[in-house]
């Protein structure tokens, strides 16, 4: 049975929404105030704040308030568990596909030997 990783689940949940992915893409360019992140979404501020809360809960961003301005910054190293998991999955499937390829090649050789 696979080890349960709640942090990984939180990250995948956070990444599952296109609005949140768009916010992360913007934050990859540098810190931004909430109003700047909200502008292209067309969403009301409370909705944007909920999206940001999901990202923050997953550890993908951090926020800080300076006076009346709340700014956000991405935490790129928070994606490391996702990369580790994806690398493991890629390895599993590459091994399986290599075994399947070997099996198909063996079948093809056997059929070629059976033909007169």
List keywords for this structure.
alpha+beta; Arc Repressor Mutant, subunit A; 116 residues
Span of the ends, CA to CA: 49 Å
The CATH H-level homologous superfamily of the domain at 8-75: Winged helix-like DNA-binding domain superfamily/Winged helix DNA-binding domain
In the CATH hierarchy, what is the architecture of the domain at 8-75 at level 2? Orthogonal Bundle
Shape: rod-shaped
Please report the total strand number as a whole number: 3
**Beta-strand fraction estimate:** 5-15%
What proportion of the residues is helical, as a percent range? 55-70%
GO molecular function: DNA-binding transcription factor activity
Pfam families: HTH_20
Protein name: Transcriptional regulator
Domain HTH arsR-type: 1-96
Overview of the structural elements:
The chain has 116 residues and is α+β, with helices and mostly antiparallel strands. It has a domain at 8-75: Arc Repressor Mutant, subunit A (Orthogonal Bundle), CATH 1.10.10.10. 63% of the residues lie in helices and 12% in strands. It is built from 5 helices and 3 strands. Strands 1-3-2 form a 3-stranded antiparallel β-sheet. A hairpin with a 2-residue loop joins strand 2 (61-66) and strand 3 (69-74). Helix 1 (6-15) packs antiparallel against helix 4. The protein is rod-shaped. It starts with 5 loop residues before the first helix and ends with a helix. The model has no long low-confidence stretch (mean pLDDT 92).
